[in-house]
Amino acid sequence: MTYPRRALFAPHGAVSTSHPLAAAAGLAVLRRGGNAVDAALATAITLTVVQPPSNDIGGDLFAIVWDGDRLHGLAAAGRSPAALTRELVLTATAGVPVAAVDALGGAQAAGPAMPARGWLPVTVPGAPAGWRDLHDRFGVLPFADLFTDAIGYADDGHPVSAGTAATWARAVAQPTPTDAEYAEFNRVFTVAGRAPRPGEHWRNPAAARTLRLIARTGGDAFYRGTIAEALDRHAARTGGFLTAADLAAHTSTWVDPVSVRYRDHEVWELPPPGQGLAALSALGILDGLDPAGDPVERVHRQVEAVKLGFADAHAHVADPERVDVPTAGLLDPGYLAARRTLLTDRAGAPVAGDPERGGTVYLCTADADGLMVSLIQSTYLGFGSRVVLPGYGFALQNRGTGFRLDPGHPNVVGPAKRPFHTIIPGFLTRDGAPVGPFGVMGGHMQPQGHLQWVAGTVDGGLDPQAALDAPRWYWHAGRTLLVEPALAAVPGLVAGLRARGHQVTVAAEPSVFGYGQALRRAPAGGWVVGTEPRVDGAAVGY
């Protein structure tokens, strides 16, 4: 028998994330007089040290901030190297089988695909610049003060949590090639070739060195100084394409979040290149349907709406700086109504429409003044590219895996482009007033997790913790559908879904269904906070 967690009620400020030590770092910052952005940054920076299989200094970051009056979005996502072309990738991968890791959740066409490891999928890390940019706009404590706990855990070590150890072991079980660019990975991130065990003490003093440089220079060392120069040399020596010029050219992008109406709420995501449009599209389709009905009907509709949302996202989402992404058209109520008519009582395999044109960690924080942050950060697919910079203790992300090689696709690989991105922070408002941040990490699961959490919150009236505790389903491709055991236990659900054409499998592995965090304002003041029960989640407050 499992016992669900109970929501945390905090009168002043709160932090919720996937690792207790990182949550404690954020809470310490709140108690020292920092605001929700300071707390979010201290949490995010600490997560790179205590949860390295899922995120690292060499990753990307996206955030939504409620400043007390309105929402702001930050896309701290890096671009591909200027030297990276489709022709180069095709030449380098000639004769190599399609990548075993399907970055687009089954939507990748048959044929050549972007590799998942090595230098080819490496894009410029955006997280260090994202930390600086969020702090410059909203932070109140000195930037360097936000690194204290992370540097301490890297220098002195910390006992590895059980959930992190399990993720680490799964990642290390995937063989790492022996080419020169991978040589540092085993030295830094394994213990004699294996993952650290739960409770085992693990140190990364080289990462502490990197974090000190970023803290002291406001990130300049990473993009124009010591670290950038070291990355340039390492890439040149081991066959990489990243250069000091690529790093110096990097910028974050401030964006306006986009939304759809769902019942009497508004659901907010960031615009492309993230896949938040898939969640918004699915919710916009469901908004026109009566939420009542038996469990089979509810789950069936949600799954079919998600399929439509993903079909459009995979067809149209790309770097909006390089192509015209029809964001407004995809979210237009008339277009969503037309997509809604494609829902039937049978499991389908929908295709994209033609609208009018116009490995991850998540955290959320709130403070006593009402500032709220929804932030997600990742290197992707278990230690990213597995290219580790010698002497600096961090892995580079492999976000280029999200590019396509089809020359006619808007997301085709090319120089200085941002790829299709899986990581998406969410935010909920009601009639323009803030309700709170939420997120569910986990690649292709993320829009599906967002939809299920929002439906549980808005339609089911669940608090943030109960909505996270609720059993989930996961659609990958075709008509396959995975459900958690607790969902399969609902009388008649699996049989009813199978009768509609879904190929249902009951899956006990919790990581398949994503890991989430959420909080919302309490009606009488303060915060109601939830954290993921499937992993080492921690909700803390004061």
Overall form: globular
Strand order of the largest sheet: 1-18-17-13-12-9-8
Q: Portion of residues in helices?
A: 25-40%
Low-confidence stretches: 98-109
Q: Which strand-content bin applies to the residues?
A: 15-25%
Evaluate the radius of gyration: 22 Å
Counted by DSSP, the helix tally is: 19
Biggest pleated-sheet summary: 7 strands, antiparallel
Beginning-to-end CA distance, first to last residue: 31 Å
Structure characterization notes:
There is one protein chain. With 542 residues, the protein is an alpha+beta fold. The chain has 19 helices and 19 strands. It has a seven-stranded antiparallel β-sheet. Helix 2 packs antiparallel against helix 4 and helix 2 runs parallel beside helix 5. Keywords: Hydrolase. This is Gamma-glutamyltranspeptidase / glutathione hydrolase.
Describe the protein's topology.
Blueprint: E1 8-10, E2 14-17, H1 20-31, H2 36-50, E3 60-66, E4 71-76, H3 86-92, H4 127-138, H5 148-156, E5 158-159, H6 162-173, H7 183-189, E6 201-202, H8 205-217, H9 220-223, H10 226-238, H11 244-248, E7 253-255, E8 258-262, E9 265-269, H12 276-286, H13 295-316, H14 327-331, H15 333-340, E10 360-366, E11 372-378, E12 426-430, E13 433-441, H16 445-458, H17 464-469, E14 473-475, E15 480-483, H18 485-488, H19 493-499, E16 503-506, E17 515-521, E18 527-531, E19 538-541
Parallel strand pairs: 15-16
Antiparallel strand pairs: 1-18, 2-10, 2-19, 3-4, 3-11, 4-7, 5-6, 8-9, 9-12, 10-11, 12-13, 13-17, 14-15, 17-18
Helix pairs in contact: 1-2, 2-4, 2-5, 5-8, 12-13, 12-15, 12-16, 13-19
